[in-house]
Amino acid sequence: MTFEKICIQRYGADVPAPPIPAEVVEMRASDQPFVRLMADVLDEVIAERIAPDEHAHVAAIEARRAELEACEDEITYLDFGAATKYAEQTAEEMYQGVERSRSLGAMCRRSSKPYRGALMLMKLVRRIQPETCLELGSGLGFTAAYQAAALKLNGKGHLVTLEGPASIAAVARATIADLGHGRVSVQVGRWQDTLDAVLSAHRPFDVAFIDGHHDRDASIGYFEAILPALSDGAVFILDDIRWSQGMLEAWTEISAHPRVNAAIDLVDTGIVQIGDQAKAAERHKLT
To answer: Which of 81, 83, 126, 257 would you label with 247, given CA atoms 20 to 30 Å apart?
Structure first.
């Protein structure tokens, strides 16, 4: 079973844990502590090992997911990202946005980070013990909730999550409030308008996660804007790296940046650790 298929398995599914991929075993032998840490994170996610103090948080978040997936209430919003993977919109057209309407259930099923992918964020935040996290793309609040649960269990840290459309941000706020995790602030507005102020106010960031816009040049631009605000050893995560050819090109350029110490390709998600290392970055890819 591929790692991508493992990640889309649902919470509570009665599926035997697959064997740990050879790539993860190889990562355990790395000289780099971060790569070994990621091997442990991936091992826990694949085997679905959830610590006793994590169980209640995971169950509550996934109950909220089930509630929204069943909701037929319609939500209208401006989509500020790439319309489709084949669209050739200008930056100005994306900035203006396209009005869309769909049910919350459809949006949840189509756009929310699947359970194991979100669980990976929780496990990563628990191990890194960050002081400040950044998220571009609150969506309906699930990845924020998983990170917030990790921060709460860590007993420290804060997440700033950015969402463009106010109607979607309101659902994310409700998700986070209903789960009672705290440690999260939601910033509403186009990322082009809000990111600089957030970076100035909350830097340095130990974790940055981008899940949205899905445009090559925009993704590279966000990385370049965020990079000076990252702490040494920070983790930068780009989601949907194979959503389009442009996103794959963005990941390829980001992972080759000279400040990248390690790059881990998880098929749908790319993870890099930032530092000032003279030698070439260590690279790993799960299939």
So the answer is: 126
Residue showing tokens 């996660």:
209
**Domains in the chain with CATH codes:** 3-58+116-285 (3.40.50.150), 64-108 (no CATH)
Phi, psi torsion values for 20, nearest 5 degrees: -70, 130
Q: How does strand 132-136 pair with strand 98-103?
A: unpaired
Residues whose CB falls within 8 Å of the CB of residue 26, separated by 6 or more in sequence, listed in order: 284
Judge whether 235 and 271 are in contact, CB under 8 Å. yes
CB proximity list for 106: less than 8 A, separation 6 or greater: none
Q: State both tokens at 197.
A: 């102020």
Contact call for residues 158 and 184 (beta carbons, < 8 A): yes
Question: Quick one: how far is CA 171 from the chain centroid?
Answer: 18
Prediction pTM value: 0.94
Q: Give the C-alpha separation, 66 to 3, whole Å.
A: 23
Angle between helices 52-69 and 115-128 (to 10 degrees): 140
CB 250 within 8 A of CB 241: yes
- pLDDT given for residue 1 in this prediction: 56
Longest CA–CA span in the chain (Å) reads 53
111-152 tens-digit pLDDT: 999 999 999 999 999 999 999 999 999 999 999 999 999 999
* Strands, sheet with 132-136, edge to edge from the N-terminal-most edge strand: 184-188, 158-163, 132-136, 205-210, 230-239, 269-274, 260-265, 282-285
